[in-house]
UniProtKB/TrEMBL annotation, chains A, B, C, D:
<dbReference type="InterPro" id="IPR006674">
    <property type="entry name" value="HD_domain"/>
</dbReference>
<dbReference type="InterPro" id="IPR050135">
    <property type="entry name" value="dGTPase-like"/>
</dbReference>
<protein>
    <submittedName>
        <fullName>HD domain-containing protein</fullName>
    </submittedName>
</protein>
<feature type="domain" description="HD">
    <location>
        <begin position="57"/>
        <end position="169"/>
    </location>
</feature>
<dbReference type="InterPro" id="IPR003607">
    <property type="entry name" value="HD/PDEase_dom"/>
</dbReference>
<dbReference type="Pfam" id="PF01966">
    <property type="entry name" value="HD"/>
</dbReference>
<dbReference type="InterPro" id="IPR045509">
    <property type="entry name" value="HD_assoc_2"/>
</dbReference>
<dbReference type="Pfam" id="PF19276">
    <property type="entry name" value="HD_assoc_2"/>
</dbReference>
Length: 409, 409, 409, 409
């Protein structure tokens, strides 16, 4: 299973070609844990709005690894010492940083394995793989956990200008066709530097960072939090919640073995042992969609209708407001539904609900973005900018939504 | 379910925006028969080679419809009369021309519903929809069946320069990242004309057509018939064949209801009634992948291993040759496998087999491409070209392959 | 000279194809006044920094006209009545809106024809052409002058979201390769609407407008006001100023006839008669560059060195600061130069000078951008935005620069 | 003038960023001989057809140098030893390979310096620079002259798959907007290898080469030999021919000094000394266009009209035929013109003339393209291809044209 000594390359519509740098990366990609990512949509159900957005976690992870190679090359060019060992570890860590994602990425965290984050599961996967690969992942794990003494390395993997964002913003913009969200990852990387063990951006990159933050903000409101994606994700979360509820009440539900396991058991981080991980590793979008295709013919009014809505794409109506939704508006929609179908209040809550969404384009508190001047001085980008708009962008924006059935239900 | 009178637009990474021209097109897209295409991969298992190639039949069908609108606009500009009724019918016909595809597109035709082509099933779907839509699809069906008196209209849907090819070559090139396969659909369409009721290309488009044919040839050999795609598709066909075989022998196999139906019944075109179509409409890639994920743990040596190969992507070895594979080469590989696993000859055939692939870049006999000169003369492109290379491209190229297990099996 | 009834199309690397809509547009493009724009660089001397930026005013003007056609199509689709006469006038007005630009666009206004803006000269050209084209441009001129009763039409030509900006930002970003400056003109146009005779943007376009303003800001600071472009333009202005000065003092300078005319005569708007316009129409980048190529061997120390700097691209050193340059810094540089070359203070001023640059990403006072909500309400974008960053962007940013010779002089 | 130790990068719309690898390359680019290329159009007068095609020899030369760096990186990866000295020489040689081009590139060779090719002048420039740069260009010159023992190095600079073509096809396609001519230079380079000291292409690249050759063929007929470009170039050649003729007859013509020199003197390769080269180095597109702008008002009927045709773009009519133009057709057009203007036969020949154009997509005789199989075998691409179309493409195609005045003259 060793890769030959030939140039292993992958076609990528975005970067042209991606080179697999060495045999451990190759072997990790070949591993069933990683191949599973081919069956997990990067953007959840967003393809219901953007029909091109069927790209996967697999593709994204490899894209990140590609950008990491570029970043290492740029930093070395500027005199930052990075050993071959560290390079390998950085590539492994970014490749696996999201391997813990469950089906439909984020929806899963709020339903199936509630209380365990995908980062924690990523770490479990890395440890399992480390055992299998004779401790070859030890340094990668150290960096990923923030335990390595060179702090900037973690920042390449997880910060406000990490290789994760550099890839996903570009990739999601590409596949959705929302070209305003496109960022110039190549240029951003060209301007990376390290100062006092922290990742910084050279001062000539100020406008690019500003643009990057605005593009990210646009992607959040226009794509990730698009009202149709939002309602689809909320429905998906409710499908799984209802399924768990029914199972707990002794109702029989057809589902794949791994999905049944997670419907029947409430798993906490402590119980997430090797067997459990093995089962988790068998779970992907296909289990969920197949279950929903089946459940749309189930007897339960709630489950049936939720599944039908997603599978045949006649979703709930959704409205987004700047102010919290008033209780009586919510109540009215529920009353209408209950009168029509004589369902309980608890059941009606599955179809009529409110919530809030929020986004902060730039966070000043945590891992802020620093600008490096030619004279060696370092300054937070908000201060470095010649205008106050970045300060404005560091305020959190919150919006409120309500979902309720269309005429069809 | 009526679309509002607003500009209904879809984001498309390739064309920018796609406009839904009218309410019947909108309603057809909303229909579960069509929404199903969201769950059918346009390029089958090619994403195992090209990780970006997860686009769907849904997206392609809408892309074709978009190009059809452009073609109609160009032809009208040049004085070709096309009524609103005909325009609507053309858009419907191209939108639905591939609706009969089963899971993983082409693999299905050689396994699940053998003996019934996807075009025939497309027609069944159209007729079913026609009943539901108060005969609004009658003209579209006439054109699709070649029964309409204006012959060029069928050529826009099905010929060597139809809107289907104009979209899929561009789209597949885009999503695979094989940029050499990219064609300039917009320019090709700009050069369309109609002469004596036949679709022709204006003479200044000769080099573009030549380039189009060479791009198509490249896509065939480098992408569609890529050896890894090829072996994956062959494995998929064999999974379904084996599954049918086992079911016939009374072995119980877990599968979704629609998949079970087609595993248990051999359906011919005559038996393809409305109920059967309804069941077929519930079948998509998710049924197949979920089944394989389950079957990889089945007791049957053949089924288990075939499924495992696809799901975890350690496929058979494949070699492509210019000459037919010799019998003794085949026999040797089979013998090696049988010695290792003590399986029957019949079982070994699932893992060691040969076949042939062929492609003809340009077909002169059927629906040839005609060039229109400024003086009104029309000539086959092979004659019109100033070089003999198009003549050369109209020869069929055949290659031969052999597949056999790697060390792992 | 009438265009045939064929589809007249132009290749454009940005939009694919541009169609010439009718014969008057065709004839205007053919006119020597307009052909002249082929010889005027859109971005002045920016190609000294961005080697790809050799695109011309000709190309930009046609690009604007293309976007105008799109905008008209979108507005009509939304029910805004625009007559064929108005459509023609809008296309003419945008095509000719910049025809009054002199060589190297903006540099000219500050040297050759100081005191007469390019807009005023554009109007003179339009009036001249109107006479030649039998008053066919009357409505276009009315719109351009703001005298037409439908005010939104002028806004399509000149406002903060006009077709001029929609093209030049996209085009300049494309040709410089500064991809962060790229804007999605197509999407912006899709969101245009007219309310109470004013151009507005539908509310779903808020984030796109924000992105557009930030992209524009980035282009200003990173491209248009790039320090090397800045110094090149300042040198060019000084070349022409010095040349005029020498001519006034009786020094003989080789130059083309039209250039000599403008060096010898100080023309005000009143004196800009038909003959003068005819001479102006013969002036383009080639006259200036050819003159400088010649003048780099002239006896005059100032003229010779200024020309040499531009032609052989060893420009002055330039520093950009957030605060005004102190007088003694300026004086020191001048002293150094005067000691080295024993030139007068007046002469030294040509090589050592300061100045300021400023940009306002969004102007609230004049032609502000209004957002149209679904309920019909209209609001300034600054208020409509969910964050304060647009307010921040409406503050003017000013920077200060100093230029002085490198070692070479 | 030394470059700092910073990463010197240039924006390129095609490759994103181009890095200047070392200080001698930097200094060569800064040299006035090279800066001159900023004022020479890469595609001559093609911008009269493709308004975006204003890119320069300067940009192309730097693009080639960029691709050379990539090629060296790929070859080294595959184990081909290339020393740092050789790398520098290869970059210099490709950077300067076209430095000998005169104004409007090819037109010049047939008029101003007839009998001296641009390659010969490139060599003269290199030798001149070598003296100035302390023999740092010696190895580059050796490679360029084919005198270096490692033959594949010349093939990187000049062969059917050299870096020159890899850049100009991509660049010309990009700037004209003729996207069918686009080639995937990156992929081609990825497939380069060296076998027995010859540049070869790995066998998996066969279809890409085929596509490259067809794209090149398309660019020739559709762009480089586009009938309008063709007639513009022919007119330009005749302008210079007529100017020389007039000068020889004692007529006074206004022109820049360097242009006057070449109009007055017939220079052969032997006479091309250092002074002459210095004068040549001052000649660029601006001298020619400025002269034509002036000469359009000259008394000479021929010169005046030829210049006017180019400057104001009302060119001669041109027809392209598969067979030679018959003498009587030519004679008739001449007669018509002579009757109208009472000019001599010699003068009429400037406006009515025939000629032929030809192109061979692939040349088998000289520097053929060889395919390297995995087993080490090497084969000419024509044989290696699975179809005969490449054989067909190696036939020369010839076409014939006639030019004559439109009504306007």
């Amino acid at each position: 299973m060793k890769p030959s000594n030939k140039l292993k390359i992958l076609n990528d519509p975005i970067y042209g070609f991606i080179t697999i740098p060495n045999s451990i990366i190759f072997d990790l990609i070949e591993h069933p844990f990683f191949q599973r990512l081919r069956r997990i949509s990067q953007m959840g159900l967003s393809y219901l709005v953007y029909p091109g957005a069927h790209h996967t976690r697999f593709h994204h992870a490899i894209g990140c690894m590609h950008l990491m190679q570029k970043a290492i090359q740029v930093l070395r060019f500027k005199g930052v010492k990075i050993s071959e060992e560290e390079e390998k570890a950085l590539c492994i860590a970014i490749l696996l940083h999201d391997i813990g994602h469950g089906p439909f990425s984020h929806a899963m965290e709020h339903s199936i394995v509630s209380g365990v984050s995908h980062e924690e599961i990523s770490l479990l996967f890395m440890q399992e793989l480390n055992a299998e690969f004779n401790d070859d992942l030890t340094l990668a794990i150290q960096i990923f956990k923030g335990k390595y003494h060179r702090k900037f390395m973690l920042q390449l993997i997880s910060s406000q200008i990490d290789m994760d964002r550099a890839d996903y913003l570009k990739r999601d913009s590409f596949y959705t066709g929302v070209s305003e969200g496109n960022i110039n990852s190549e240029r951003l990387i060209t301007m990376l530097h390290v100062k006092d063990d922290h990742l910084v951006i050279e001062d000539k990159g100020i406008y690019s960072i500003e643009k990057f933050l605005v593009a990210r903000r646009l992607m959040y409101w226009q794509v990730y939090l698009h009202k149709t994606s939002l309602v689809a994700e909320q429905l998906l979360i409710r499908v799984l919640k209802r399924a768990k509820e029914l199972v707990k009440n002794g109702v029989k539900l057809q589902a794949s073995k791994p999905l049944s396991f997670f419907l029947e058991n409430e798993i906490t981080l402590n119980e997430f042992n090797s067997d459990c991980l093995e089962t988790f590793a068998k779970l992907d979008d296909y289990d969920i969609v197949s279950a929903m295709k089946n459940w749309q013919y189930h007897d339960d009014f709630v489950l049936k209708n939720l599944c039908d809505m997603i599978i045949n794409r006649h979703l709930l109506k959704v409205k987004i407001k700047k102010k919290p939704i008033k209780q009586d508006v919510l109540d009215n929609h529920k009353k209408t539904l209950q009168q029509k179908h004589s369902i309980s209040d608890h059941e009606a809550n599955y179809f009529v609900f409110t919530g809030q969404i929020s986004n902060q384009a730039y966070t000043r508190k945590k891992q802020n973005i620093n600008i490096l001047y030619k004279n060696g001085k370092v300054e937070d980008i908000v201060k470095a900018s010649d205008q106050l708009n970045l300060k404005a962008l560091s305020k959190t924006v919150t919006k409120y939504y309500i979902c309720y059935p269309k005429d069809k239900l």
